[in-house]
Amino acid sequence: MINLNAIGIKLKSLRERSGLNQAQLAAFLNVDQSYISKCEKGERQLSIDALEKACNLFGCTLQELSDEHADIQHLQFAFRATSISSEDLEAIADINKIALNLKQMKALLGVAQS
Asked: What is the tally of structural domains in the chain?
């Protein structure tokens, strides 16, 4: 069973460690800022599509996000601009998705080579 509170806590932690505010994440996920707040409190649940999009942005897997015992080592990104747009976050998410796919392929190859 998925623990909404655990996902909310992890989502908030990832958002804060990435230097994003709720409004920026909400704009990226095409939801209202208050919805992000409720999700972080465990009162609401994001759709699977929105969770996958958030995972791409933060460079983690959906499995890591939903496992309340997993320690997420998300991909770090740095900003040199004073503001960031949803389009910027889309580009970061695309790059992180490529990095996650590469990480998964390397893990699969490591298992196959053993």
From this structure: 1
